[in-house]
Specification:
heterodimer; A: alpha+beta; Glutaredoxin; two-stranded parallel sheet; two-stranded antiparallel ribbon; 5 helices; B: mainly alpha; 46% helix; rod-shaped
Chain lengths: 109, 155
């Protein structure tokens, strides 16, 4: 997410809003966001209702066996249609901002 | 005759420790060393090789070199640590659910309303309807949709 913050001007220039979603409560997200200097919203889904609706629940994947979200990135167009998806197979391998920008620019052509 | 200090053992052990402890605070910060932990695996391999050389010396020429006992202890710890590292970073990190029913390209993204870091509700529909905070005239009012990044949370 640090890399997305660094490339935020490129997302702004294309009119793409970034949000990050986890099951952390706002009380955790507020200091976490300030500490890392994120300027996009961190949304909170403690009941994992939305995470489950997106089929991203990782049962027992969190500390102490808590249910958390598995990593996943979705590019949604202004009409609400999914245009690009990345579901990594490894926790350490995440989408890079360049991939998303390239996908977005490719869709425009 | 006075026995020599067995430097290979210590150097090897230090390299193994460096390999084990540098991933999370340093190499995981850069995609090129995070996606596949090759720097850490190289450090571990080099460390284990030096430990092996040191052990061969310690047991082969016990009259010349120190290290039979503490060298064995360091080697056992190192092999266990390297094994745990490999298990964690090559196997455990890949144990993710398949998420076969996650929204596909071309499908509608399920709408949601969730509180942001200040507890203020934000809906996907709002995100899609409102443009980014315009910084220049060129970007003002542009609507490019939204990027949803689901992540594992802050531990």
């Amino acid at each position: 997410m640090r890399s997305f913050q660094q490339r935020l001007p490129d997302f702004d220039a294309r009119g793409i809003r970034i949000v990050a979603i986890s099951n952390d409560p706002p009380d955790v997200n507020r200091p976490h966001r300030a500490k890392h200097g994120f300027t996009f919203p961190l949304l909170s889904d403690p009941s994992t209702q939305v995470i489950r609706r997106y089929d991203l629940l990782h049962p027992g994947g969190g500390p102490g066996g808590a249910d958390i979200a598995r990593p996943g990135e979705f590019l949604v167009d202004p009409s609400g249609t999914v245009r690009w998806v990345n579901l990594t197979e490894s926790v350490t391998v995440r989408a890079r901002p360049e991939e998303v920008l390239k996908a977005f620019d490719g869709l425009r052509q | 005759m006075k026995r020599s200090w067995n430097g290979w053992l210590w150097l090897g052990f230090l390299l193994v420790l460096a390999g084990l402890l540098s991933y999370i605070p340093f190499f995981a910060l850069f995609p090129i060393t995070r996606d596949f932990p090759w720097v850490n695996l190289l450090l571990l391999a080099a460390g284990l090789a030096l430990l092996a050389v040191g052990l061969v010396r310690a047991f082969g020429k016990p009259r010349l070199y120190h290290g039979g006992i503490f060298g064995t202890a360091m080697a056992v710890l190192s092999v266990a640590g390297a094994g745990l590292f490999c298990w964690g970073l090559l196997y455990e990190v890949r144990q993710l659910p398949a998420s076969a029913s996650a929204p596909h390209v071309g499908q509608k993204a399920p709408d949601f309303t969730l509180p942001d870091q200040d507890g203020k509700p934000l809906a996907l529909a709002d995100l899609l309807a409102s443009p980014t905070t315009a910084t220049t005239e060129a970007t003002a009012g542009k609507r490019g949709g939204a990027l949803l990044i689901f992540y594992r949370g802050h531990w």
